[in-house]
Design goal:
Largest sheet: 5 strands, mixed, barrel
Strand order of the largest sheet: 1-2-3-5-4
Shape: elongated
Number of helices: 4
Strand content: 15-25%
Distance between the termini: 48 Å
CATH class of one domain: Mainly Beta
CATH architecture of one domain: Beta Barrel
Number of strands: 5
């Protein structure tokens, strides 16, 4: 079973089998749509997207008021009941497209300024802007998938070596260039005075 801290499920794993369950999700607000009486939020984490809706007749005024204030990229925690989407409103292009969560509790974990670019794969943004705001760029699905692939690949190599009784001995890296353009720093030698 996966380890979880603040949530019971990820935003990419809810399916029709979860209908009727009470779940807790955490993630970033991808989009908010206000239809006057109802508010819909697309909640995104590294695993996917889930649609959350707020109905003033079914949730407290405080919960609905909080839903009116949240903005894109705000990290939030929601709790609610998984329901089947209304007939004709399902999204076959989305893994969680059959279901939505009726929110009964919401907690704004933090606020966020409007990002300099949209956190989506199909939006083209200059590389300079993406590298300047690398922490945002890494939230994009393609970049997050690249990070996951690299992590899994490194883990597989280390696991294979471990299974063959290799011992990992790491030598500290005294300098390292980075593609983001950070400066290189050389460390003075303790054992050879005046050398780096």
């Amino acid at each position: 079973m996966a380890l979880r801290s603040m949530h019971t499920h990820t935003c990419g794993e809810l399916r029709a089998d979860n209908i009727g369950q009470t779940v807790t999700l955490t993630g970033w607000v991808r989009a908010r749509r206000d239809f006057g009486g109802l508010i819909f939020i697309d909640l995104r984490d590294r695993e996917g997207l889930t649609q959350v809706f707020f109905d003033p007749d079914l949730c407290t005024p405080e919960v609905f008021s909080a839903a009116e204030t949240v903005r894109p990229e705000w990290p939030i925690l929601i709790e609610g009941e998984v329901r089947h989407r209304i007939e004709g409103q399902t999204n076959p292009n989305l893994a969680t497209g059959e279901v939505e969560v009726l929110c009964t509790r919401v907690e704004v974990l933090n606020t966020s300024k409007t990002p300099p670019f949209q956190i989506e794969d199909h939006i083209e943004t200059s590389e300079d802007v993406r590298l300047r705001y690398r922490y945002l760029d890494l939230r994009r699905p393609k970049m997050a998938a690249n990070l996951r692939l690299r992590s899994d690949f490194t883990f597989a190599i280390r696991q294979a070596l471990h299974d063959r009784a290799f011992t990992v001995v790491e030598t500290p890296a005294l300098f390292k260039s980075t593609p983001e353009g950070a400066r290189d720093f050389l460390v003075p030698s303790r054992t050879q005075s005046g050398h780096f």
